[in-house]
Amino acid sequence: AKERDRTHVAVFDHQMQALASSRLETESQLGGALERDELRLVYQPIVDVHTERTIGFEALVRWQHPSRGLLAPAEFMSIAEETGMILAIGEWVLREALMQLQLWRMDVPGARDLFVAVNLSARQVQDPEFPAAVARTLAQTRAEPAALHLELTESMVMSRSDVAVQNVTALRELGVRVSLDDFGTGYSSLSYLHQIPAHTVKIDRSFVAAIGEDNASATSIIGAIVGLGRALELDVVGEGVETPQQVEELRRLGVRYAQGYLWSPPIAPAAAQEWIREKAV
Ligand code: C2E
Ligand code: CA
Ligand code: CA
Ligand code: CA
């Protein structure tokens, strides 16, 4: 048994080392990804579940890695966050998404009400310079503040400094819209709602996924979020909708907006432009 244990430890050790070195490698490559223009944004439509019209898009970052192909955020964003590279990446994402929005709005008359939703990181939300940076980027791209939705999660703002709350207030004063992402999964969603005045809550996809799995509590929680949304005049978006049954249930519960593979996965800008021509006007 001792022999086997030692082998296990050796294998484990080897795997840990491989993991650590691939992490280091990813880290050093990510450092140059922006200059080499390897980051991409893909866009997922957000639809009105009554009219099926597309009202906006969520921008999601990808890394076109030189050898590993197109990487999802799970493969590099935690490294970006830990090293602080996320600040430069976040700035790029914001500018790119707003420039793209302006191109679409020019290209498709009638698509003028379209918005773009951009995900924030904890570091951005905690950065005292962030609202000023957003204001600058809005001015440079001539985008309307209300056409920018900034998505943040509970863990980015709760039990940290007041900077996050001040930042959200400053962003609201700019006219930017604030969305609470992954809503319902945090520890204290109610006090969070109270602390962060938002325009939109996005029901976490785990609740949507539980619809139809004979899960009465998921349905009750979604119903409660819709009730909160009504009382606080928040828009409610259901995330991760994959089946007609799920959207049917969301409609029944009073959820007005949704996104998910049922309509479309995140798509490249050119495909999104085609999508807008057909579904947003
Ligand atoms: P999120 O903000 O909750 O984004 C939704 C994720 O769910 C996306 O994964 C999207 O591709 C995926 N998704 C959409 N519809 C469905 C569906 O019907 N079923 C399922 N199973 N999944 C669906 P993605 O693109 O891999 O992004 C993962 C996370 O990475 C995002 O979660 C967000 O937290 C983060 N992220 C993405 N882009 C950015 C960015 O530009 N900046 C920052 N700070 N974070 C980002
Ligand atoms: Ca999001
Ligand atoms: Ca989410
Ligand atoms: Ca998330």
* Helical residue percent band: 40-55%
Task: Give the uncertain stretches in residue-range form.
Answer: none
> Which ligands, by name, code or SMILES, are bound?
ligand C2E, calcium ion
Structural class: alpha/beta
Instruction: Let me know the number of strands.
Output: 9
Give the strand line-up of the largest sheet.
Answer: 1-2-4-5-6-7-8-9
Shape: globular
Strand content: 15-25%
Radius of gyration equals 20 Å
Order of helix and strand elements from N to C terminus: HEEEHHEHHEHHEHEHHEHEH
* Average pLDDT number: 92
Q: State the major sheet.
A: 8 strands, mixed, barrel
Describe this structure in words.
The structure is a single chain. The protein is of the alpha/beta class. It is 51% helix and 19% strand. It contains twelve helices and nine strands. Strands 1-2-4-5-6-7-8-9 form an eight-stranded mixed beta barrel, surrounded by four helices. Helix 11 links the parallel strand 8 and strand 9. Helix 3 runs parallel beside helix 5 and helix 5 packs parallel to helix 7. 34% of the residues are buried. The site of one calcium ion has 4 residues, from strand 6. It comes from Ruicaihuangia caeni. This is EAL domain-containing protein.
Give the gist of this structure.
The chain is α/β, with parallel strands linked by helices and 281 residues long.
Features:
single chain, 281 residues, alpha/beta, 12 helices, 51% helix, binds ligand C2E
Helix and strand topology:
Blueprint lengths: L1 H32 L5 E10 L5 E12 L3 E3 L5 H7 L2 H22 L7 E5 L2 H4 L4 H12 L6 E5 L1 H4 L5 H12 L2 E7 L5 H7 L4 E4 L1 H6 L5 H17 L2 E4 L5 H10 L3 E2 L10 H11 L2
Parallel strand pairs: 2-4, 4-5, 5-6, 6-7, 7-8, 8-9
Antiparallel strand pairs: 1-2, 1-9, 2-3
Helix pairs in contact: 3-5, 5-7
Bound molecules: ligand C2E and calcium ion (3 copies).
One calcium ion binds next to loops.
